[in-house]
Amino acid sequence: MASTDRITGNYYLDTLRGPTGTGDMYINLAAGEGNLVVKGNLTVVGSFSKIESVETLFYDNEIVLNGDVVDHYPDEDAGITIRRGLSANVGLRWNEGIDWWQFTNDGFVWWIMLRMIKDDPNPHLGGHLYTDCFEIRSSDPCNILLTPGYTGTKANTAIQINHVDSAVANIPYVIGSTVFYGSDPGNGNTGLFIVDKDQRKEELITKRRAVLYSLVL
Questions:
Q1: What DSSP line would sit under 115-168, residue for residue?
Q2: 152-161, long-range: CB within 8 Å, 24+ apart, which pairs?
Q3: Helix (H, G, I), strand (E, B) or coil at 171
Q4: Count of domains forming the chain
Q5: What letter does residue 110 receive in the DSSP assignment?
Q6: Do the domain assignments include residue 72?
Q7: For residues 117 and 123, is the Cβ–Cβ distance under 8 A?
Q8: How far apart (Å, rounded) are the C-alpha atoms in residues 198 and 177?
Q9: How many other β-carbons are positioned within 10 Å of the β-carbon of residue 150?
Q10: Residue 125 burial (CB < 10 Å; 0-12/13-18/19+)?
Q11: 151 within some domain
Q12: 126: left (phi over 0), alpha (psi -120 to 50) or beta
């Protein structure tokens, strides 16, 4: 049986403090199977809100945190924390102290998200760098290894810094630069060449050529 009450003005329900020190009010809709519909704005005033549900659906496409920050500069962080029981909490937050988005995987160390290399004075890769066709990695003691064609494809040159001479690998040469590259060994038998600003291909000196030059000179 439906029931409708109409009133004029505000309507208040006040509960008195009981023996346990609380004055709670409970609404039981069809033994927990009914719906509570509020047509209008809902304002909850209190220090703690708790929602017990399996699934919560929001029609809003934006969720605003720190909604009370209106007429002053922000002075506190805001974010989302995920509780994981016996495991450490994880989360995502905006850090007002440094003006960066951060995340944590262990609940202790907060890492900066989406930081560009130019904004990081001390970048760390944490592992090898793999591109579409070559690999850059480090090896003890602090050696730099460049591996062309690591995916199984054959590289045009074994080693390349800047651009290779167009006659060697069909890559445009940048005027004014000095190019160091690897290619098939020539008379010097090194396979290492240098191209200067005049685009002259000079093979690096070998012991055999050094002896020959010393005899000539």
A1: --GGG-SS----S-EE-SSEEEEEETTTEEEEEETTTSPPPS-S-EES---HHH
A2: 157/181, 157/182, 157/183, 158/182, 158/183, 158/191, 159/192
A3: coil
A4: 1
A5: P
A6: no
A7: yes
A8: 9
A9: 16
A10: exposed
A11: yes
A12: left
Q: How far apart are the first and last CA of the chain?
A: 117
In a domain? residue 5: no
In tens digits, the chain (217 residues) has pLDDT values of: 778 888 888 988 888 887 777 888 888 888 878 888 888 998 888 888 888 888 888 888 999 998 888 888 888 999 999 999 999 999 999 999 999 999 999 999 999 887 766 777 777 777 888 877 777 877 777 777 777 666 666 665 555 554 444 444 444 455 555 666 666 776 666 777 776 666 666 777 666 666 666 666 5
72 token code pair: 């002053």
Interatomic CA distance for residues 155 and 151, integer angstroms: 10
Q: Which residues form the domain of 154?
A: 129-216
Residue from 131, 88, 82, 91 nearest 113 by CA: 91
Nearest to 125 by CA among 117, 154, 159, 133: 117
**Dihedral angle, C-alpha 175, 177, 183, 188, nearest 10 °:** 110
| Residue 165 placed within a domain | yes
* CB of 167 closer than 8 Å to CB of 173: no
- Can you read off the two tokens belonging to residue 133? 């066709």
Q: For tokens 């329900």, what's the residue?
A: 13
Tokens 């291909």 belong to residue: 201
